[in-house]
Amino acid sequence: MEFVEVCNRGEVPEGGVRTVKVAGRAVALCNVGGEILAVDDVCPHAGGSLGRGRLEGETLVCPLHRAQFNVRTGEALGGPTTEALATYPVQVSGDLVRVALSA
Question: Residues near 51 by Cβ (< 8 Å), separated by ≥ 6?
Fold first, then answer.
């Protein structure tokens, strides 16, 4: 598994979401209580960028039609889709955040 450096930890504030590119794929980084989690950035319902969404605890809300996803599991929790998001392994070393596309 190859981890790719994507940003500094401070670029994803607690309770925040940020989109990064990993090997050409858009990935949404979410900071839940200081833990950085990674999921697909593209909402399976209408293709909205989840990095522009809102994080409510462990729930990421799509800015387009309010689809909701658990950022730990990728599970769809509500809204107009039942399709889950892919989740990705994250490593934080010092101030560096790294993401791998495969487990």
Answer: 17, 18, 19, 26, 28, 29, 41
CA torsion sign for 63, 18, 81, 22 is positive
CB 97 within 8 A of CB 5: yes
pLDDT of residue 103: 52
Which residues partner with 88 through β-bridges? 38
For the chain, how many structural domains are there in total? 1
Query: Does residue 21 lie within any of the structural domains?
Result: yes
Give ∠ CA 71-84-42 in degrees, rounded to 5. 75
**Which residues make beta-bridge pairs with 30?**
17, 37
* Residue 25 C-alpha from the chain's centroid: 12
In a domain, 4, yes or no: no
What is the reported pTM?
0.94
